[in-house]
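Entry 14. Two folds queued back to back today. First construct below, sequence then structure tokens.
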Amino acid sequence: MKIFCTGASGYIGGSVAAHLIAAGHQVTGLVRSPEKAEAVRARGIEPVMGTLDDVEILAEAARAADIVVNAASADHKGAVVALLDALAGSGKPFIHTSGSSIVGTRAKGERTDAIFDEDTPITPSPARAARVALNEFILAHRDKDFRPVIICPSLIYGAGIGANPHSVQVPLLIRMAKKRGNAAHAGPGENVWSNVHIDDLVTLYALAVEKAPAGSFYYAENGEHSMREACVAINRMLGFAGPPAAMSMGEAAAEWSEGTTEDTMASNSRVRAKRARQLGWQPEARGLIEEIVQGCYRE
């Protein structure tokens, strides 16, 4: 099959593209520069030069493909509209990437007990209201004679493929630990995030391409941990003695920005991938703590 992937030089898109190429598919990927074009071509991806604002380039690439995977941005409505319009009436799958911060609460590092599966109603924070609205807009196209599907990963960890082979949260914590000589979390660090290994996540994309019905929405997770637990593991990995430190919200915001601190590093995002498992998804990669202590983050 011919697959067009946005974000093909990035962590999720690059990893998904590599998995689909290994499965025998042909992948074209949107890239913004000659340097990134050269990098993706070396991995077997045929580059398409352009940006998410280039409506005609996106539409032409989507029409030429059998499957479209949007992994460049969870929030760029213009690109989504261009791709959806190009696919209407085609019967083709459109796999869009969201993120589980849509259920996040600004908890200042405190734990909350709310857990969401795909059937749980969401009242998003103001920072994520537009993303939830975009998800609903995409799924509303289920009756346009093509197959819109959303995959909503939780905290992603593990070594992927792309210009930046890691996701956001764990590297931020590791860099902070190296800077301070001790791991540190925002507030008490009891806030909990579900998580998923990149190796397991890419298999869900492939399964969604093959089997997901139009209008499907899937969380992706295989466990959960508090930020404090992640920091304890980082101290073990780096050989730092003693417990991790608690930063004030002001200290954390000075390091990570207010938005990243409030909506990611100090929030809760607890989800369950009920529908993904019903689809046949079977995550098998090692867990977050083991990956931190013994895996790719030691390099």
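Second construct, same run, same settings:
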Amino acid sequence: MSAVTMKGNPVTLLGNEINVGDDAPDCVLVANDLSEFKLSSLKGKKVILSVVPSLDTPICDLQTKRFNQEAENLGDVVIVTVSMDLPFAQKRWCGATGSDKVITLSDHRDGNFAQSYGLLVDGVRLLARAIFVVDANGTVQYKQVVNEITTEPNYDEVLEAVKKL
């Protein structure tokens, strides 16, 4: 994996690195209603996993709003945003922004997603900014770990990868 920085400072990502061609790891995350949500429940569907440090920051807000907007043109693609935010904060953010086409899930409970996808930023218990496109068989077809956490991902690359599914 290439070096990742936060505000120009190198950070260490902990966990298992996931690559294109790998099976997307199954994880249990927490939904906005505090129920458990298994990523494996999405098998059979095309999925964009949009991973952000916190919805309460400007770039994460922009990224998630962008995917909520793109959802209209993507047909049967499920868009999931994962962060360490508490489910209450995610629910509040969705309501405040009118974002109703993305599923927001929290990894705050045990960081299982962070470890399984190799995105846990050491020392701050946040997720690195990343996007995975997963096909209906549960195989990772595209991966983007954003080199500088405080910048937006390359949306065009993601949308191109989804169109190839």
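Quick look at the second one. The chain has four helices and twelve strands. The mean pLDDT is 94.
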